Amino acid sequence: MPAITPSYQIVNPSFIMPEMILSYQQASGAFSALASGNPLVRLGDGDQYVYLKRLDIRTQSAASQSGNGNMLPSVALEARMMSTPTYLHRARAIYDHHDMSAAGGWGIALPEAQRLGTRQAIFQQLRSSLLFGMNPAGGEGLLNTNGATTTTLPADSTGNTTVLTYDSGELAVFLLGRIQAARTRCMQMGETTHMVILGPQRTLGAMEIQKIVQLTSYQRPGAGTSSVAGMIKGVGADANFTIEWAYDDTLIGAGANGTDAVILVMPEVERPEVNSKINTNEFAKLSPSLEATSLMLCDMPAPREIPTPIAGGAIDVLSELRSTSGWGVRPEAIEVISMNYSA
């Protein structure tokens, strides 16, 4: 990691602004797609795999008026193990007292700049691992979750297939239909649920700002028209679910045939229960159980930093963190929608 801080000359008298214009990167909202909004700190030092137990049940009973049947059906239980590998993410910073002096001439605290830079490098790799996986062919990453629903934005009533040309009302209705489908797959209709829609800024931004739903399709009480995002949020308030819009531009071109990918995910589910006495979901009371649908596990909340002096008076600071890729443990809660932004 070089620190290019050349000498410079200035004209006196002059004034040097103490602030710096920093290079900004997108603050990804990808981690909103995880249960709890962050990776779970569960791994031990050096853990190579994470295992998760799954228990499925098939029930059957017999009914007769006399009640003397001798051949009665029984409950069938099937236990199986799920697993995902872990990966060690590492980055390093090397500098000496000359580098620190040169950076100081620019008003830069070099150790802190290198520290933040290595952390950002690891966090960006975590984001990539969450969405795309370190081994996509193995079903790693939310985009590659085995069993997840994949959809392509269909043509609207006038034949438009791109986000920019799509009928705004029909686009909002399409997304609401996908939300309903996800809630239905997860048996969450009637439950209070939180949904996350993750996609590129240009695609979701158009739905929040540009795509205004016509009065004939949707009207907020006393306030004219709303955007696609506003309509979905309004309907969600009535239908007992909340929507979070999150952005990540690495999803540009990540959909089918080079289209933009939009990930619709329900990070956690609630245990369905309507009647506590006669509950057709009684088996779900067995504990311990996991309500998360998408996971990522790591061994510590922030990268470990290991400073080591090296020959010549320099210092080597190694940063590392171990994590899994994005893990869709309930694939029915994840849907990947391919949307063509423009022609």
Helical coverage, percent range:
10-25%
Termini distance? 40 Å
Q: Order of helices and strands, N to C?
A: EEEHHEHEHEEHEEEEEEEE
Overall shape: it is: flat
The structure class reads alpha+beta
**Largest sheet descriptor:** 5 strands, mixed
Query: Per DSSP, what share of the residues sits in E-state strands of 2 or more residues?
Result: 25-35%
- Low-pLDDT regions: none
Average pLDDT, rounded to a whole number, is 92
Instruction: Give the strand line-up of the largest sheet.
Output: 4-15-9-5-8
What radius of gyration results from the CA coordinates?
Answer: 26 Å
What's the count of strands? Answer: 15
Number of helices: 5
Summarize the structure.
The chain is α+β, with helices and mostly antiparallel strands and 343 residues long. The chain is built from five helices and 15 strands.
Structural write-up:
29% of the residues are buried. The chain has helices spanning 97-104, 110-132, 168-185, 201-210, 228-239, and strands at 40-41, 49-58, 76-95, 149-152, 193-199, 212-213, 226-227, 241-247, 260-265, 294-295, 297-298, 304-310, 314-324, 327-328, 334-339. The protein is α+β, with helices and mostly antiparallel strands and 343 residues long. The protein is 21% helix and 26% strand. The strands form five sheets. The protein has a five-stranded mixed beta sheet with strand order 4-15-9-5-8. A four-stranded antiparallel beta sheet has the order 2-3-13-12. It has a two-stranded parallel sheet with strand order 1-11. A hairpin with a 3-residue loop joins β12 and β13.
